[in-house]
Amino acid sequence: MAVGVEHVEKVYNTYSRFYDVTFGKVFESGREIAPYLLDLRPGMDLLEVGVGTGLSLPLLPKNIEITGIDLSEKMLAQAEKRLELEGLKDSVRLLKMDATHLDFPDERFDRVLAAYFISCVPEPVKVVEEMKRVCKPGGYLVFLNHFRSDNPIFGGIEKVLSPLFYRVGFRTDLVVGDLMKSCGLEIETLEHIDFLGHWKAIRCINPD
Question: Among residues 2, 12, 57, 197, which one has the fewest Cβ atoms lying within 10 Å of its Cβ?
């Protein structure tokens, strides 16, 4: 797809004003599954790529260290307001960063979360490879995301429409098995978030 990082940043800067109202409740059930799949323990370090307005942050334990990164300054500004409101400023730091070039050392985090994010980026494989790099061996990589339907009819429609949807901020043609295989990951846990099974919660264990 020809749409680049600059377009994504522009789109989500615009969405920042109404993202919570539009997508907060819609994706809430998936965010509630995330802490269970992350299996967080006291003192662990968690990275959330594509933290957005910080909707996941209040649902996570208070006894861990959290780093959230996002490309959109305006989304991060909304997340900062949420930290203040929820009293989370001491345990969460927010950084503007491109997820295809994470400015962290190898094996830095115990857990890495991508909540409704992988389908929003131009280079999903590169993002997942960066997530793997900064995650400790044996650590968990958790994804909440839409993936293309296994149904040939629905999947075909999603593939055809994906370029149009990507213009407004997300793609509909990601195939979960192909993505994980390309990144050298095996799916350890998969749960359907919605009734039709288009939205999935996935846990992979970072290889040693």
Answer: 2
Structure confidence by residue, pLDDT tens digits, 127-177 = 999 999 999 999 999 999 877 656 555 555 555 545 554 555 565 567 788
Q: In 10 A of CB 138, how many CB atoms?
A: 10
Q: What is the pTM of this model?
A: 0.83
Q: What is the C-alpha to C-alpha distance for residues 137 and 49, in angstroms, rounded to an integer? A: 18
In contact, 94 and 79? CB cutoff 8 Å: yes
Torsion of CA 6, 7, 9, 10, to 10 degrees: 120
Q: Are 10 and 174 in contact (CB under 8 A)?
A: no
Supply the DSSP symbol for 200. Answer: E
Total of domains in the chain: 1
Q: Which helix (H) or strand (E) holds 147?
A: none
> Which residue carries 């095996």 as its tokens?
186
What is the residue-wise DSSP string for 133-146?
Answer: HHEEEEEEEEEEEE
> The domain containing residue 155 runs over which residues?
5-205
The CATH number assigned to the domain holding 153 equals 3.40.50.150
**What is the rounded distance in angstroms from the CA atom of residue 62 to the CA atom of residue 16?**
25
Tokens standing for residue 67: 């780093």
